[in-house]
Amino acid sequence: MGSFKDPSKSSKEPYSYEYFNVTFPSEYVAHVEINRPEKLNAFIEVMWLNLGAIFTRLSHDPNVRAVLLTGAGPRAFTAGLDVQAASQSGVLGDSSDGSEQDIARKSLYIKRHIEEFQACVTAIEKCEKPVVAAMHGHTYGLGLDIALCADMRVAAATTSFSIKEVDIGIAADIGVLTRLPKVTGHASFAKEIALTARMFTPAEALNAGLLSYVLPTKDEAVAKGLELCKLVASKSPVAVVGTKELVNYSRDRPTEEGLKYTSVWNMGMIQTEDVKRALMSGLQKRKPTFEKL
Amino acid sequence: MGSFKDPSKSSKEPYSYEYFNVTFPSEYVAHVEINRPEKLNAFIEVMWLNLGAIFTRLSHDPNVRAVLLTGAGPRAFTAGLDVQAASQSGVLGDSSDGSEQDIARKSLYIKRHIEEFQACVTAIEKCEKPVVAAMHGHTYGLGLDIALCADMRVAAATTSFSIKEVDIGIAADIGVLTRLPKVTGHASFAKEIALTARMFTPAEALNAGLLSYVLPTKDEAVAKGLELCKLVASKSPVAVVGTKELVNYSRDRPTEEGLKYTSVWNMGMIQTEDVKRALMSGLQKRKPTFEKL
Amino acid sequence: MGSFKDPSKSSKEPYSYEYFNVTFPSEYVAHVEINRPEKLNAFIEVMWLNLGAIFTRLSHDPNVRAVLLTGAGPRAFTAGLDVQAASQSGVLGDSSDGSEQDIARKSLYIKRHIEEFQACVTAIEKCEKPVVAAMHGHTYGLGLDIALCADMRVAAATTSFSIKEVDIGIAADIGVLTRLPKVTGHASFAKEIALTARMFTPAEALNAGLLSYVLPTKDEAVAKGLELCKLVASKSPVAVVGTKELVNYSRDRPTEEGLKYTSVWNMGMIQTEDVKRALMSGLQKRKPTFEKL
Amino acid sequence: MGSFKDPSKSSKEPYSYEYFNVTFPSEYVAHVEINRPEKLNAFIEVMWLNLGAIFTRLSHDPNVRAVLLTGAGPRAFTAGLDVQAASQSGVLGDSSDGSEQDIARKSLYIKRHIEEFQACVTAIEKCEKPVVAAMHGHTYGLGLDIALCADMRVAAATTSFSIKEVDIGIAADIGVLTRLPKVTGHASFAKEIALTARMFTPAEALNAGLLSYVLPTKDEAVAKGLELCKLVASKSPVAVVGTKELVNYSRDRPTEEGLKYTSVWNMGMIQTEDVKRALMSGLQKRKPTFEKL
Amino acid sequence: MGSFKDPSKSSKEPYSYEYFNVTFPSEYVAHVEINRPEKLNAFIEVMWLNLGAIFTRLSHDPNVRAVLLTGAGPRAFTAGLDVQAASQSGVLGDSSDGSEQDIARKSLYIKRHIEEFQACVTAIEKCEKPVVAAMHGHTYGLGLDIALCADMRVAAATTSFSIKEVDIGIAADIGVLTRLPKVTGHASFAKEIALTARMFTPAEALNAGLLSYVLPTKDEAVAKGLELCKLVASKSPVAVVGTKELVNYSRDRPTEEGLKYTSVWNMGMIQTEDVKRALMSGLQKRKPTFEKL
Amino acid sequence: MGSFKDPSKSSKEPYSYEYFNVTFPSEYVAHVEINRPEKLNAFIEVMWLNLGAIFTRLSHDPNVRAVLLTGAGPRAFTAGLDVQAASQSGVLGDSSDGSEQDIARKSLYIKRHIEEFQACVTAIEKCEKPVVAAMHGHTYGLGLDIALCADMRVAAATTSFSIKEVDIGIAADIGVLTRLPKVTGHASFAKEIALTARMFTPAEALNAGLLSYVLPTKDEAVAKGLELCKLVASKSPVAVVGTKELVNYSRDRPTEEGLKYTSVWNMGMIQTEDVKRALMSGLQKRKPTFEKL
């Protein structure tokens, strides 16, 4: 019986997740706001779990074609991990009475924990629909892990960036060191900010290819992010989802592998009705509309 | 506050999952029995979701060091996907009234579905603790997808195997085609059973390296599987978990990558107390005991 | 204007290629016979060019679902490269008066030549439809390069195999050394036959997984090969083509890559009518028929 | 009997290919001009087949050491695929009466088609001799697929770039999405132009590393491209061919793989006479000459 | 001034390394005997350093074309690591008073140590000339790490094998877990012996493809190994070195990568005089001789 | 008996290596100065051997946390290979009387030589502690091979760069062609400087991401390099060593591989005392001190 149905389609419940506001400012555009401004949007465990849950759900939500990610309040996109909370919970691997625990067992528990944490952040990268991060203020540590998973990045001129982890005695492990060489071709700069934990400016980030635009204020940065989202949301979602997937896939693999995967991806996708609609609209000089995805 | 705790440790709730019996026949050994014998243990959707959930949980369960996987009843390990049920739900991509759906959208829904299905089966391979599949009777299609994710395989002489998918018009997509060349070095045989969907015998499977042992009856096969589990469960869990991980990792990658990962894995793991306990027990000719993991 | 057409469909010209007989012994089965029996089917340049052309064409021929590859005459599948001819043409890199040529230039010319030669043989592996090699008599050097590109291999008991290249002073470069570790899991045996150039028997080849079956005579080997081809040709070509592609792809890559490619391959393929036809035929206990591919 | 000869050396026939002008403006420099100016050099099928044929032949032509690629007429390098022609021929997967075709079969035909199309464009990247693209005017869609295969890129200030495919409902599949992350390290910019299909300027392209130079006019851009070609053509072709190959190889693979391949490449190449000639010319302060390759 | 010289050629000093006998039982054949029979040839640190030094030197020794590796005395090839010595030196990561050391620092020291140890054993695999391991008696732990680096393996029927590491609380880290899936295609057996540390017999090892031959006694196994070495040593060293390199390279990489590397390797190598000598000798029915390498 | 000791810790002998000055200008900072200013710091064989030895030793030296690399004298970082010396020793593969040598044997000797040379330069990249190259004056050929192995690069405005190798008839083989696409995202520029051997300026190098800073004079460049070293040396060495390792590892591999390796690396490393010290110092607003590594 019946045509194949995507299970996500039936979900009608609102997006309510602690420490996040999820709104829909425009057709097919979702806006995810990190919302713990009194702590500079610093992350505690429930937040990264929620972050992962939100983007996993947005990925398949047929009402979503692009996602804007911002931080609440005037001061920070996010100051990163809430280190104080983390050190109390043992998340940092540092524990005052941990000495009696077997090192190997503790290592495995930590590994499981890092992997779960990574998976929550990677959910942004795996979200089928493109994500635009619009940053301002403190954007430290985990803030960069998160931003580098987005597809496009814009920032207010007032943003201050830093890969903070070295300053708390650890090599960053939620993804920034892995993704950094893939989102900037300025290797000397990348190593410098990773190894020194120094602050860097939006101008430097723009120059290194980490950003698409720098805007004077947070409001303008968020508006620019929204504009990009709207533009993406106006396109065929089949084309957009495929484009994100193919660029991400190819970035990580040899050219021949990318081309091979592309042909297999498109052998079915190109049969979409969207091509006909897009071509017809082009001829008729009107804006095409596309079915949900 | 205090030492790092693995969240899974606190779980006390019983393993109750529809269509599965999960028991603990021996210290540190779990036994997962596929339990839909009236339908030859054929899988419907809730079953593969439960399969994934069970192995994901066993992976981190400190009371588990080895897992035995079998099928209930005298007739089948599992006859594979319940094709009748699947064709009704549209899972096979075949739907009587699906023609009005856009091909690209339907493709993406199917892709999401295959990936979820694959992930449930891959949970067996990702389970940190070794898994032994003890098979008997019909072991078709999905039955092989599942069995190839186990670490060790034994079978009753009465088992009949088949990669059935070609006979229902599809290339198998839940993993058997991917894992087949990695669990047998007999490439001509592997291609033959994949391309022809012919039945093959335990003797052929043994010869091709797909099995470790063939036993006369189901009971003996299950007993042999349990014996292997007990043996593994008597070893240091740190050593066992590491061994599974390193073999799986290296199987898929160049030698130098395997060696590099090995040294990074062991730089911490080798600091375990288990080494001291194992060495001491060896000197004292007694059976060592190891902390939970 | 109209539906997308595969260009190969329109070709009606007969398969006539020097030194090869191409026949169609059964519906959807092509039989390619290497035909230079007076020289033990040894290859000269036109032959490997023709070999490549034939398999490239069979790959897209809608009347072909499986291919049998054999050697004409009672004495050889193929004795390999016609070394005498090759050494006269300079193909082996050996030339009596070549000293005046610049080494780098000569190297590049040789490289282009090896790559062209490899591509002709690889055409068998790239042929979308499965290929069965049925061997007998001398099967040396290039004979193994070719046979290892097939999907299934059977041989007469009278076959004698040898990777001859070491005996003429070169490391085999048309593929046997690359494919050998991928078609047998007996590494010590593989190295031995590659390094010593010794003859080996069908029994040894069977044991090492290089063969699916050994038959007493050439006729029986060819008949077995044909039987396998007919069996494959009776299945859904969509399922068969996908199965060959997915096994070959996965053999060469990590498990996760194989699974990912599989889901993208099947998201479109599984929408084929063949599933419905196969299921219906199964219910009605009759042989399904499938559209050409 | 004879030293090894490269077959391409004997070819004397002129380069005459429909829709292309191939000239030799300077010693060892070929100039390929896309020539369908009345249609903004938009591509129809015969053109990409010819493009592939031309570069495959230039690759081995001993009279060629560098290739300049430009578009005829004042208005466009190329406006990309001739979408009107393509949609009529069914190339885009969109066909008004295609509904009766089996999706899987149509998918495979499309896959074969995409792969053939990709191969024609990849011929530029695989051309042993370096290629310089000098662009002006409309450079859309396929124009970027092509330009990203070149080794060096220059553009007139009047060039307008766009990855158009999203606007016709498809993810670009002839290579631009695969090569984009490999030719620019500005990931946010790359995703933006791929996902939004917006126009971008030569200045943006220069900043993102897609271009080496921006010149005021088409003539100056072409002159700059020719200057680069002449400079490359004045060097040892052994050194030049090796340099292109090693950079392309290494770009796609881990550092250790690149170093290993480099040593095997150069173990023979470095024995060339060109080293002696280059060193001697250096000492004697004169321009070296090198044998053809 | 003059032709390029391989530095290793000038070395005339004898191969004297503590705990090893290095002899030359036949032209171009070296015999390395592990010589600490009173301790079952168990390894202490100086031994693996010497093992690495010996094979690194043999690799470039022009008087060597094949290497036989055996264990002295009647009882063991090698019983593996001398665990008693290792635990005293802290090599196993286990130390009674290590608790005051920082875990991360200790981890890095251990990593450096494992990598050095791995490199010594990998020297066998990297030795340009083929290596035959002829085993007898106890062949445990490190014994298998070493044997799996050899190209061919033979054993006496009295050999007893075991991957012992799990029994001392660690995952084996000197290479056996990495190489095991690459030298046998019997995955279930491989996992079983790795996870259970059980003894296995030469018959099982032969069946799984770990061995080429099983001989009744140590003397016969050594004689068979020597016979294989002599056979290899009678071939063109250019062909032999290339064959080992190409099989090892391809085993670890996709088919296309293997073919590409092969063509680049042979573009120079095939220009060797050995081809002419081998062909001439073939015509003249006499044994060819080849220059040193 | 006792805790595991890193062997490098006991070395007290001074760093005295011909043609290099190794000093310690600041706590935990080593300064390596290439010292053959009368020859523009051009390299002869003993120099690259010494370079490798120095960095291999610095890598494990517990008194070193960052390394500055500069060239002595006012005129050059290094003019690269001393071509005159190299051509006399046959290193360039060019030898006046080499014609009687077998090409394959000579190729293998050259391969061994290139690999040894590469390994010496790669020692900089493999050095666990970060390396800053501060360049001035002539920085040609090998100078860039070396500089691209450093983690951060600064240069005086007077520096002139060139990848010279094409001008002496060879494709650069000591690493620059492999690393170039990994340290700059400006592909067109990278190909241009590699293929044309033209001089390029610090401004161009800065723009392409090859440099972090350009300073007016050599002294200022060296001072800036030292400042970066001091900053890195003030951080936790556990965090710094991990950061370098994880960026380098991830740069060369897919994102998922990078994340996986990261979690395994940090499962042990994060247990370091340095986290506690860093956090405590942060709270107390004082500079942390860390144990040696």
TrEMBL record, chains A, B, C, D, E, F:
Gene3D superfamilies: 2-enoyl-CoA Hydratase, Chain A, domain 1 (3.90.226.10), Lyase 2-enoyl-coa Hydratase, Chain A, domain 2 (1.10.12.10)
Signal peptide: none
Keyword Magnesium: no
Pathway of action: Lipid metabolism; fatty acid beta-oxidation
UniProt keyword Lipid metabolism present: yes
Protein family per UniProt: Belongs to the enoyl-CoA hydratase/isomerase family.
Protein's UniProt name: Delta-delta-dienoyl-CoA isomerase-like protein
